[in-house]
Amino acid sequence: MCAAVYVLSTVTGYVLTSALLLKFPALLHRRKHGGFRSRHISHRGGAGENLENTMAAFKHAVQLGTDMLELDCHLTKDEQVVVLHDNNLIRSTGVSVDVSSVAYADLPPYLCRLGVTFQKECYCEGGEDKRIPLLREVFENFPATPVNIDIKVNNDTLIKKVSELVVKYDREHLTVWGNSNNTVVKKCYNENPRIPVLFSMPRVLLVVGLFYTGLLPFFPLKEQFLEIPMPSIITKLKDPSRMTRSQRVLTWLADTLLMRKALFDHLTARGIQVYIWVLNDEEDFKRAFDLGATGIMTDYPTKLKEFMEKNRDICGVSG
To answer: Any idea where the GP-PDE domain is (predicted)?
Structure first.
């Protein structure tokens, strides 16, 4: 009887303490203070409105007033840091060659028409700008715009050179970097701990596990940005009738576990920004902001801007 009472009181105390700290994490953790806060994030510069990762896309997004540019980086044969998503150029340029095996001056231009990865059966028709840009060009042209850098490969030289560019252009307070690969994120942090890092996928899974076991409020976190997909968008990218029952169940389960307002509110209270990607319609915009996401990553920066202007109350837009 005494043992049962002891166990019950211990469990009750743990649950109450966890719930208290989940709601008021400042009681245990010092709030992180970043150099910027992003609500409107242009994925690859806005891949649905301009050719992805081009200067034309970045200029268009910045002129619209985007809070952040999201882009991807690779290293060329002559060790130039380029803004490019794929390791192989076949999808983007029609030439089947790895970017790491080509000197920057020899890189082929983008195709005139590229598929929008996160929009079903949608293509973007390019304008005159089909050139793969250098990362330093982005820094030089948009010195005050925060940039989210996805380090696409586990390459020590790439990580070092990106860090050097961030330091050279005085952007440690305007940059976040990382990858879904935990090894890459660790290398980024070790190379320059002054640049905020993203949660890798293993760390995302850890956070979710800690949240559901009640341990998250007690756990220290070095990352400042959580970027996660909204799993339900899979049903918009694939024909639901062609998805197996297990695929539908897994999608529902992942969405249910990840899209939790209590989780987002707790992380936000700790100064960790929560970004949801890649959302391209108003239904998903509304859901993400209703759940308490800090910002939304989109291929259609114009569409997101118009939504935010019409829904200032749910988007946290002042004015």
So the answer is: 38-308
Phi, psi of 313 (to 5 degrees): -65, -40
How many C-beta atoms surround the C-beta of residue 144 within 10 A?
8
What architecture does CATH give domain 28-312? Alpha-Beta Barrel (3.20)
- Taking every pair of Cα atoms in the chain, the longest distance, rounded to a whole number of angstroms, is 79
Task: Please say whether the dihedral angle defined by the alpha carbons of residues 292, 297, 299 and 301, taken in this order, is positive or negative.
Answer: positive
User: Identity (one letter) of the amino acid at 256?
Assistant: T
Interacting residues of 136 by C-beta distance below 8 A, sequence separation 6+: 81, 165, 168, 169
Task: Return the number of other C-beta atoms located less than 10 Å from residue 293's C-beta.
Answer: 26
Please report how the helices 55-64 and 301-310 are oriented relative to each other, as an axis angle in degrees rounded to 10.
Answer: 10
Q: What is the pLDDT of residues 253-308, one digit of tens each?
A: 999 999 999 999 999 999 999 999 999 999 999 999 999 999 999 999 999 999 99
d(CA 227, CA 183): 17
DSSP strands (E only) in 32-146: 40-43, 68-75, 81-83, 113-115, 123-125
Residue 72 pLDDT exceeds 70? yes
Sign of the C-alpha dihedral computed for residues 117, 118, 123 and 129 taken in this order = negative
Q: State which amino acid sits at residue 222.
A: K
Asked if the model's pLDDT at residue 208 lies above 90, the reply is yes
Nearest C-alpha neighbor of 70 from the set 219, 179, 156: 179
Residue indicated by tokens 């939304």: 296
- Could you state, in order of their start, the residue ranges of all structural domains in the chain? 28-312
Torsion of CA 156, 189, 160, 162, to 10 degrees: 120
Residue-by-residue DSSP string for 4-37: HHHHHHHHHHHHHHHHHHHH-GGGTSPPP--S--
CA 110 to chain centre: 24
Position 81, amino acid: V
- Using CB atoms within 10 A of its CB, is residue 277 exposed (0-12), middle (13-18) or buried (19+)? buried
Nearest residue to 124 (alpha-carbon basis) of 23, 195, 179, 56: 56
Alpha-carbon distance 84 to 87, whole Å? 8
